[in-house]
Each structure stands twice: as C-alpha cells, then as structure tokens.
Amino acid sequence: MKDQPGQEKMPSGIHHIMIVILDSGTSQEVTNVIATLHIVAPSQKQSNPELIKMKNHFGTGVTFDEKGPYALHFQITKDGKEYQSDFTYELK
Ligand SMILES: [Cu+2]
C-alpha cells in the first residue's frame, strides 16, 4: 500500500496489529499507559515494533513473511505496575 497525500500515514507492513486496553472495572478504553510489543517469528527472529497511540488503541504495522506460529508478547506499564499478555498467531 502506498501513502496517498492527504491521508493519515499508516504504519508500514502488511499486517496491522491493534491493541485495545480496557479497564476491567469501568470497561473504558485506557491509553495513558506505556505499551511495548515483542514478537518472535517462527525462525526465532525477534523484533520490537514500536506501538503508536491511535485514538483509542495502540497499533503498529508488521510484515509476517514466514509460515508458522508467531509469539506476540505485550507488556503494559500503568502507574508503575506491569501487566503482560501473550498471544500466538499462526500464518498458514
Ligand atoms: Cu490503528
């Protein structure tokens, strides 16, 4: 995808990762956190794409070009507390 003048610049990559963080008490979206993402590809290649704050969520663009399972590890820091969440995405 090419950037078009006048359009919001989208992160590069062919996959768009979105993380919406909800407060479990109020179900409101939370964006005043530090969020990091660590990805381990099927070949064990590691990357740390920068998460960009996008209105009500965090997002980034990545390219998954290897077949197999990707391990996605999110870490969120809010008010000095750390929260972690792990996901697996399989590219077939
Ligand atoms: Cu986004």
CATH architecture: Sandwich
How many runs of DSSP E, i.e. beta strands? Answer: 7
CATH class: Mainly Beta
Q: Tell me the CATH topology.
A: Immunoglobulin-like
Structurally, the number of domains stands at: 1
Bound molecules: copper (II) ion
Q: Structural class per helix/strand content?
A: mainly beta
Distance between the termini: 22 Å
Order of helices and strands: EEEEEEE
Low-confidence stretches: 1-8
Question: How is the biggest beta sheet arranged?
Answer: 4 strands, antiparallel
Looking across the biggest beta sheet, what order are the strands in?
A: 3-2-6-7
Oligomeric organization of the protein chains: single chain
- How many DSSP helices? 0
Mean pLDDT: 88
Salient structural properties:
single chain; about 90 residues; mainly beta; Immunoglobulin-like; three-stranded antiparallel sheet; disordered N terminus; binds copper (II) ion
Layout of SSEs?
Elements: E1 15-19, E2 34-40, E3 46-47, E4 52-54, E5 57-62, E6 68-78, E7 81-91
Antiparallel strand pairs: 1-5, 2-3, 2-6, 4-5, 6-7
Bound molecules: copper (II) ion.
What report would you give on this structure?
The protein has 92 residues and is an all-beta fold. The protein has a single domain (15-91), classed as Immunoglobulin-like. The protein is 0% helix and 49% strand. It has no helices and seven strands. The strands form two sheets. The chain has a four-stranded antiparallel β-sheet with strand order 3-2-6-7, with no helix packed on it. It has a three-stranded antiparallel β-sheet with strand order 1-5-4, with no helix packed on it. A hairpin with a 2-residue loop joins β6 and β7. It is elongated, with a radius of gyration of 15 Å. Residues 1-8 have low confidence and may be disordered. Copper (II) ion binds at residues 18, 54, 57, 59.
